[in-house]
Amino acid sequence: MAKKAKKKKGAVDNNSTLATNRRARHDFKILETLECGMVLVGTEIKSMREGKVSLVDAFATIDNNEVYLRNLHIPEYSHGSWTNHSPKRTRKLLLHRREIDKLLGQVRDGNKTLIPLRIYLKDGRAKCELGLAQGKQDYDKREDIKRRDQNREITRELGRRVKGINA
């Protein structure tokens, strides 16, 4: 019989979400999403597996027909030595040439930007879900909040009617 491996405290398994950018869907309208690989050094992936990664100010740019992820904060690995990485270094994203060309055209044309939505592990490899986004205005955000509140109130009322509560 095979023994089960013990899971370290704070560690994540091979197919799990490491970080999500919750503000992105609030501040931007996501038009399209892409899955892309990430070029990382050894201590970065070890730190990510401990669950320490922040997407707060991260964004992607296209320079010299290559996509780079900027301002992604991966803290230094706790058991690292002189080989540790710098926490906010620029990291290269791996996409097919036709995907990069398509994104380049869309970003150059209008007021669209590339935002990382989620970082996760897939078969032991770090992946980034990249979203082509367009900024929302304040009134768009208010409309979304209003719509969410209305839907919540409708479901509450339906639940009350099903339960027979008259309030």
TrEMBL record:
Molecular function (GO) terms for this protein are: DNA binding; RNA binding
Q: Does the keyword Transmembrane apply?
A: no
Q: Where is the protein situated, by its record's location annotation?
A: Cytoplasm
Where mainly located?
A: cytoplasm
Q: Which UniProt keywords apply?
A: Cytoplasm, DNA-binding, RNA-binding
Q: Which GO terms describe its cellular component?
A: cytosol
Its recorded name reads SsrA-binding protein
What organism is this sequence from? Corynebacterium phocae
